[in-house]
Specification:
- It is a single chain.
- By secondary structure, this protein is mainly beta.
- It is built from 1 helix and 6 strands, in the order H-E-E-E-E-E-E.
């Protein structure tokens, strides 16, 4: 069981994200922010969601677009 959770939630890479309304970032395994706030993201199926993110807390989501109306800063995509 531990190995399956590790495979599902472990990141093997990370990239700082500059929010953009059309440039995709590839499908993530999660997001983390350094300054708390909201992150509006789009999933591969095109649905949008707004996450309330606390600083330093991993949000385990597979999204491919972070919008400019996000107000959290220091957004990092985990892959």
């Amino acid at each position: 069981m531990v190995d399956s959770h590790r495979e599902l939630f472990s990141a093997t890479g990370a990239v700082a994200v500059v929010p953009h309304d059309t440039n995709t970032i590839g499908e993530t395994r999660g997001l983390i922010v350094t300054v708390a706030g909201t992150v509006r993201a789009t999933f591969q199926d095109g649905s949008d969601v707004v996450f309330q993110c606390a600083a330093g807390v991993v949000i385990p989501v597979c999204v491919n677009l972070i919008h400019t109306d996000s107000n959290a800063t220091g957004i990092v995509a985990l892959y």
